[in-house]
Amino acid sequence: MTPPRTGRHDREHIVGVALDLLDRFGLPDLTMRRLATELDVQASALYWHFDSKQDLLAAVSDRILARIPEPSAGLDLLAAARAVRDALLTHRDGAEVVMSSAALRPGPSRAQDVLRSALPGDVDDADLAATAVLQFVLGHTTLVQQRMHGESHGAASTAGALDDRATDAAVFEAGISLISLGADRARSRH
Amino acid sequence: MTPPRTGRHDREHIVGVALDLLDRFGLPDLTMRRLATELDVQASALYWHFDSKQDLLAAVSDRILARIPEPSAGLDLLAAARAVRDALLTHRDGAEVVMSSAALRPGPSRAQDVLRSALPGDVDDADLAATAVLQFVLGHTTLVQQRMHGESHGAASTAGALDDRATDAAVFEAGISLISLGADRARSRH
DNA sequence: ACCTGAACACCGTTCAAGT
DNA sequence: ACCTGAACACCGTTCAAGT
């Protein structure tokens, strides 16, 4: 059943190693040369498997998003938004990776699908709302992860770190709650 | 009144040229070396004026945000959000520049202030809401501008370009409207 | 105070050539 | 089919030295 494995590496495997490198060193240090070294291969070898670094990052983005669970019935917007956020938070700089590839993947992604499923099906503005929620989650999580990066190489006080985490969560809940409330109200006006 | 101009360039001037380069070639091509060439100077000369490229980009970010008008009374949330978005759209890749420096500028920025001023002063969740709105605007505009970049070097159909612009605007209005509705409702519950 | 020149340690990508 | 080796055209940053 598994496809023939003549070469040493296939796309799937390379994406896995890239994800590992991402978690250990962050996006700025995820270079084609480092990835190649990790695979015991020349950098140029990667260009047989991927057209470009963009192409590689798009595959990494897809893998990050694949962690989002299937849209299940009865999921409310807050739960759906949390599922997307948590998938992004699972890997270092996950939001930035997804964002950088989001423009090239125009079709409704897995993320968009879960969010859409948590909104009323009869309102035609629901697609717009789902997109807006996705953009909020991406913006929010990107900024959160960027601050993590800043802290790690020792810029500010470690004292406020727990505070920041709590505030981040509160901002997220506030954002989604307001949109939920707004959607309910828009709906109750028929 | 003007401070002494002994050297050929000061920070203000360099930021202006950087912004011009940004508009003409985009963020990936805004390199220290290109900027130096544009200023008829060696790249190393820039490091007398700025500690690092990050430092330079932070100054560029501040200049982009400086275009946001003062928070005036009676401004509603939609108008305030538009003011922030329009400032970001004024320069190519503006949202990405601001986002990349946002983590290092933790204090309430000019953008946060306008948004905050458009929300009720008596609700203590208003700060959370203002931050959430800012994160939505940044996420939204970053994705919009990334798609512009993708189109420009000729990926997809030019036919749907106008369509995209209209959809982008609709998503933005939908997002802000829903949050406004939600905020009203949260407020009317005392 | 402000800038040059040279160097260091890197990048992404291409392409002929190997197996 | 898959990879090597070498090259091309770049990066950000540091630092002694100049003026």
Number of domains of chain A: 1
The gross shape of chain A turns out to be: globular
E-strand count of chain A: 0
Sheet-strand content of chain A, in percent, reads: under 5%
Oligomer: homodimer
InterPro entries (chains A, B): Homeodomain-like_sf, HTH-type_TetR-like_transc_reg, HTH_TetR, Repressor_TetR_C, Tet_transcr_reg_TetR-rel_C_sf
Protein name (chains A, B): Tetracycline repressor protein class E
Domain HTH tetR-type (chains A, B): 8-68
DNA-binding region (chains A, B): 31-50
Describe it for me?
Two copies of one chain form a homodimer. Chain A has about 190 residues and is mainly α. The first copy, chain A, has a single domain, classed as Tetracycline Repressor, domain 2, CATH 1.10.357. Helices cover about 65% and strands about 0% of the residues of chain A. Chain A has nine helices and no strands. Chain A binds a DNA duplex (19 and 19 nucleotides) through helix 3.
Could you list some keywords that capture this structure?
DNA-binding (chains A, B), DNA-binding, transcription (chains A, B), mainly alpha, 9 helices, transcription cis-regulatory region binding (chains A, B), Tetracycline Repressor, domain 2, homodimer, 190 residues, 0% strand, globular, 65% helix
